[in-house]
């Protein structure tokens, strides 16, 4: 491969409207599951209603991600701040036990995603030559990216690309695309993730895997830029892209799925996902390391690991499997704890944290790993610039 | 820009299961609109039922795309071959006047899209280093592309990219991405379009713009490859990528939209779209031509025009506007006539027709134009290789 060095830089995150403690979120989700079943079963006595409420609270507290792993999460949706089901935008559970169908969720996504682009670029005079919009939680065209470009009359300067429906690992194909556009002469590629995962909850889905998903995922919005090192306006610091690699693990088609369904988007998640990842990871890392002339042992000794928290325990399991030290996964754990799994926006939050951490020395290598349907293992090797 | 020459080649199309004359399709659509209203209105007399049937037949025949512009279209869905609404997979209109909600449409897309990948690669031993799946009509992960790679154990050789939800012009961002990946050292990038537009009809949508959409769009499935000219296995002939350009027309956000809605995906389309395209096209072509050191006048004199048929009259209107001769738009008209608007799969069908037409001399320039939400005008300048 003949990469020129590409730098990822100028990270800015935008906290979605509501920041809530995980304990409060778990209570809300328990109440939503109970209300969904009350709407479906129409119990006629207080006892029956209370039994339903107790049952689903117990289930959510048992299988949901606990507060020792995730302290807080963000959501753009006002619905999560109260349990007055008649005042909900999506979770009007007395009429729609699953929440509203896809159209209203798309309209909400359009509003919030549009605002995110407006805010990110409010102070910015220079149009990016390429603007990549990454999401797997809302499909509306014109997108926030396209509407920004139309509004600001950047249409002749900015090409918009949608990198949609690649799931949690999508920052990695996005930076591969960005590197290709830089290679073809574009001076700067901006990447914006708007992930509104909480929008797709369906409280009639009570399976343990669904309770994990519902209590793990959160909203996240972040932007960053890719450009050739040393070109354009000086960049204070960034992450140099050294190598990328993406693989699909054989015979894992059924391990995980993500599709547009009747009431928003629906995920399925097998309990075997962590096993599949562990089984494939060593050889994957060997090949990723080799493209940079390194070995997995060298990376495990010296690199930081930016690991997408596909499940609540995946960071710990990988760290244990590879023999990593706590400081090597500190940023990944901190982002999971503060924000949960923000789908494709998660890894960029980890990159931002590493970049802004003064204790991380220039020259430090960063192994980035994320996972998604396929099963896909996607990775990149980055280096903190001087 | 520093492109190395990239060649598009090895086009293969795969006709969706059912090929129907436009006359028969118009009758089916008229019957579906009538049945949807009969389900909603519950008329109690034969007269009332017949009045509804007459009304919607008249509307569909008045506003639908007539048989003089579109002779036939393809669909993967058996539903369109009969009007026994109880036997439908999606259009079970006696229970669901809009057809079934999104989930069943996604499941059908998953099946058909999966089969398309299996068939395209059945005889192929060499995994493509990159496989770009393009669609705006079905969002299911693992995608057909990912499942193919998993099944064939190509996971270590093939990176899958989803280029989703960019609408009718998506072949152009796809080839820009492909060129970037080639530039970064990938020997071959395959691009597969699976567009099942007919899956998203909602026969309760009776507005004239919706009748145009419902009678214009069709299913289309096609693959092709991009690689550096002169590298890899010899290619009999192809289209050399000379220049690309994409612009968003200011203040046209509301002219066209495409989003996930309650009953499949919904398009809106303003009557002003052709005016916006005409207004922006001249200057757009000037800039596209200039990147190749040419002028619009030279292109209008010498090039063929591969024009996406965004509406039934757009090819003619552009030809008239630019003063093109009938042979310059012959392939575009032929594809529209035989297959309708297959969204992003359309332009690749036109490219294939031009490539296979022995009467088109090597060295012939091909201006490619397509349109979508934004409003986006996207273009490429290609040249038929020797």
Automatic annotation (TrEMBL), chains A, B:
List residues of the Chalcone/stilbene synthase N-terminal domain: 131-221
Q: Which Gene3D superfamilies match?
A: 3.40.47.10
Question: Residue ranges of region Disordered?
Answer: 1-20
Organism lineage string = Bacteria, Pseudomonadati, Acidobacteriota, Holophagae, Holophagales
Which residues are in the Chalcone/stilbene synthase C-terminal domain? 241-383
Descriptive protein name: Naringenin-chalcone synthase
Among InterPro entries, the record links this protein to:
Chalcone/stilbene_synt_C, Chalcone/stilbene_synt_N, Polyketide_synthase_type-III, Thiolase-like
Keyword terms: Transferase
Instruction: Report the superkingdom from the record.
Output: Bacteria
Protein's organism: Geothrix edaphica
* Similarity-based family: Belongs to the thiolase-like superfamily. Chalcone/stilbene synthases family.
């Amino acid at each position: 491969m003949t990469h020129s060095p590409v730098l990822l830089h100028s990270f800015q995150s935008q906290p979605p409207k509501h920041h809530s403690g995980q304990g409060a979120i778990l209570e809300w989700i328990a109440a939503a599951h109970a209300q969904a079943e009350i709407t479906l079963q129409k119990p006629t006595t207080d006892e029956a209603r209370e039994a339903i409420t107790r049952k689903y609270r117990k289930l959510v507290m048992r299988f949901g991600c606990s507060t020792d792993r995730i302290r807080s999460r963000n959501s753009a949706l006002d619905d999560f701040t109260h349990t007055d089901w008649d005042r909900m935008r999506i979770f009007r559970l007395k009429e729609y036990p699953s929440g509203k169908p896809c159209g209203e969720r798309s309209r909400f996504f359009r509003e919030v995603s549009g605002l995110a682009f407006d805010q990110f670029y409010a102070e910015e005079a220079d149009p990016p030559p390429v603007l990549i919009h990454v999401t797997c939680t809302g499909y509306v065209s014109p997108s926030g990216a396209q509407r920004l470009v139309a509004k600001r009359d950047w249409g002749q300067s900015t090409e918009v690309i949608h990198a949609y429906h690649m799931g949690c690992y999508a920052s990695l194909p996005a930076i591969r695309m960005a590197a290709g556009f830089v290679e073809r002469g574009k001076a700067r590629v901006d990447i914006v993730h708007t992930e509104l995962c909480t929008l797709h909850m369906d409280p009639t889905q009570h399976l343990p895997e669904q309770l994990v998903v519902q209590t793990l995922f959160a909203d996240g919005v972040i932007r960053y830029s890719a450009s050739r090192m040393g070109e354009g306006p000086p960049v204070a610091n960034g992450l140099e892209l050294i190598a990328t690699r993406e693989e699909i693990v054989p015979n894992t088609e059924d391990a995980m799925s993500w599709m547009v369904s009747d009431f928003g988007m629906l995920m399925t998640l097998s309990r075997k996902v962590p096993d599949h990842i562990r089984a494939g990871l060593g050889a994957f890392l060997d090949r990723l390391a080799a493209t940079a002339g390194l070995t997995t042992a060298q990376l495990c000794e010296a690199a930081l690991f930016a690991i997408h928290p596909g499940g609540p325990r995946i960071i710990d399991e990988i760290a244990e499997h590879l023999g990593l030290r706590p400081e090597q996964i500190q940023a990944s754990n901190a982002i999971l704890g503060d924000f949960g799994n923000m789908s494709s926006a998660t890894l960029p939050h980890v990159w931002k944290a590493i970049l802004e951490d003064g204790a991380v020395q220039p020259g430090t290598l960063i192994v980035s790993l994320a996972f998604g349907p396929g099963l896909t293992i996607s990775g990149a090797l980055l280096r903190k610039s001087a």
